[in-house]
């Protein structure tokens, strides 16, 4: 599962500049594209911070430091990451 997630994230890192370049050239212009995607980036960072701060969104860990996360916790984390 970790290999799949890293591959998907790496692929998104390579594809997103192409999508941003298309929007910049076709619709928004350079500065509006930078501003728009910066806002999306900030929202992602806020979601990641919330997923690490709120007790209900943190995985439960046992005495052996093995953590078990729920589907909601995983979903919020990947929403912020992607």
Automatic annotation (TrEMBL):
Could you tell me the superkingdom of the organism this chain comes from? Eukaryota
Question: Where does this protein reside within or beyond the cell?
Answer: Membrane
Q: Which InterPro entries match?
A: MFS_trans_sf, POT_fam
Question: What membrane topology does the UniProt entry give?
Answer: Multi-pass membrane protein
What transmembrane ranges does the database entry give? Answer: 6-24, 31-54
Coiled-coil features, chain-numbered ranges: none
This protein's UniProt keywords: Membrane, Transmembrane, Transmembrane helix
Q: Its family?
A: Belongs to the major facilitator superfamily. Proton-dependent oligopeptide transporter (POT/PTR) (TC 2.A.17) family.
Q: Which PANTHER family match?
A: OLIGOPEPTIDE TRANSPORTER-RELATED (PTHR11654)
Q: What is this protein called?
A: Uncharacterized protein
The record lists the organism as: Gossypium arboreum (Tree cotton)
What is the taxonomic lineage of the source species? Eukaryota, Viridiplantae, Streptophyta, Embryophyta, Tracheophyta
């Amino acid at each position: 599962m970790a290999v799949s997630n890293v591959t998907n994230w790496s692929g998104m890192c390579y594809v997103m500049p192409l999508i941003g370049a298309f929007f910049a050239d076709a619709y928004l212009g350079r500065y509006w594209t930078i501003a728009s995607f910066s806002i999306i980036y900030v929202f992602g960072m806020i979601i990641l911070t919330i997923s690490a701060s709120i007790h209900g969104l943190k995985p439960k860990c046992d005495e052996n430091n093995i953590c078990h996360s729920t589907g909601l916790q995983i979903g919020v984390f990947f929403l912020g990451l992607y």
